[in-house]
Fold:
Amino acid sequence: MLGLGSSLLHSGSIADTLLFSYTSDFTSSIDSFIAQSIEDSASDLTLTYNETISGSDGWLKGVFAEDQASPGGIKWHDGTVAMFPDNGLTGDYFTYSYKIYLHDTSTWGSDDVRTSLNVLNIHHYDQITPEGVVNVSGTSTFSGDDYDRNGPMFIWNLVDDQPSAGAVFYIKDVRVDLYRPY
Structure:
């Protein structure tokens, strides 16, 4: 029997716990992004901040100096700063969004470039068509009990999609939120 004021149902919902939130700001710095697994050396990828494309400023720009023959890109921090507070649990998930612009189809190897956003060792792949700003968003769920606590990383890892010398990318409005289900 239920007491006064008790009910089997309640109208409110219980929210998942936000473990970490990251939002980029490339207006005054590269916001702790660095080269990740670049072919010859990290100096073969030049990063600049607050670039303007299509009348919009605040973009992070990357220019590859050498052809890339193995997976590489950029990552947030150098691995010495843990993005997430503890080890992951099965069911943890992240939501993400970002804007990306890949300049010049001829330096990216294919018409649609598979771009990986890696968070928690979960690679989420999106096909990006060069020569236009693309808004990307989604959700990915963690299925193991231990994850890489660093991130996010943007990687180009298919042979046909690895950047050539002179390849240019722009990224803006990166947001990653990590949740634990209630």
User: Anything to note?
Assistant: Residues 5-12 have pLDDT under 50 and may be disordered. Residues 61 and 170 are 4 Å apart (CA to CA).
